[in-house]
User: What shape does this take?
Amino acid sequence: MSNIELVERMGLNSVKYEKVDPRMSGDILRMSVAEMDYQVCPQVRDALIKRIETGFLGYGRPYPSLYQVIADWYNTHYQMTLNPNHFITTPSVNVAVALSILATTKPKDKIILHTPVYMPLAKAITENDREWVKSPLKLVDTHYEVDFELLGEQMKDASAILLCSPHNPTGMVFSKEDLVKIVEMSRANHVQIISDEIHADWTYCPFTSVQTLDENAIVILSASKTFNLQSFQTSFTHIEQMDIRQKFQKILDGFQYKALNSLAYLAIETAYIHGDEWLKKHKGYTFNNMLLIKNQLQKSNVKVIENDSLFMMWLDFSNIYTDVAQLEEALIEVNLAVNTSTMFAESRPMIRINVATDTQTVMEAVRRISHMPKVMYEVD
Ligand SMILES: Cc1ncc(COP(=O)(O)O)c(C=O)c1O
Assistant: This one.
């Protein structure tokens, strides 16, 4: 599996490589931001090169065939029934989440969102003058579960629930049974479901989209994580209900957003048409990196959280450090750049480590973790 090609990101103005904790210096291992070190799918690269060679970098538009291609991908892979006419092209997923909130709720309304959390989702709530109702996922031994008793209470006076499905940072995939319960509760309480499904294609078990259970759920889809195309900052929001779709569109019109990114549309369409093999290959490679971490850290006092999705892992250091400050000090000592739990509104000392890189780097990460103060690691 060594025919995985990486991109040397240093010097390319990459956030992942060039924005690290200023307390670190020297030989830093960079395993933070949610993008892969892998080279993009060759067909995407070739299509972009060919386009750039024409010299045409003018305005483009999302042609109808693109919506059909996206609908086909999700309908085929996850049995969703997406209507190509019901997509709205949106800027990044984070913006699409904020727009969905604006289109379906009022100022001061309560919106449920699980913790730990990918913070921009929470900010899309609070910075739009809505109330974030925190719904902590339950950590049971080494996996997370939805706290349905709490959720039942919270649903009673909420206007919306924002799902991060699959869940970042825990890697939890909502089971079909979980989603059925969430849909029943939200119907009973007239709560709108908004689902950020950006990580759907990085699942290692059957994935159910909430859209298959509730066609009125707003789903936000993106090729960005699937194919490592983060810089295009383009997503597709599927809204079945006409009144909400019109309201959403009106808000976008207010910003005069015209979705004219021709390179994004070319890359995204090419990726959905030709990228399946690339995705399978890179998921397989990443999965092996995850197994390596699991096997190695089993020999230590670091707890590996079971994950069924993402190209990142969520590791628990609460047996070792009392707080995140201590954990951060330890990471600085070994020059390991990862995301710590404070970034995810979690007070337990934990890290999210990105393993979408070569296996050598993952081995080096294990070595560095084993050298963190107070980490106990038994070498075979
Ligand atoms: C759950 C989730 N939603 C949204 C995003 C950001 O997507 P975009 O760059 O399209 O805003 C990320 C990026 O890590 C993410 O993990």
Notes: The CA atoms of residues 216 and 240 lie 6 Å apart. The chain is about 40% helix and 15% strand. The longest helix spans residues 276-297.
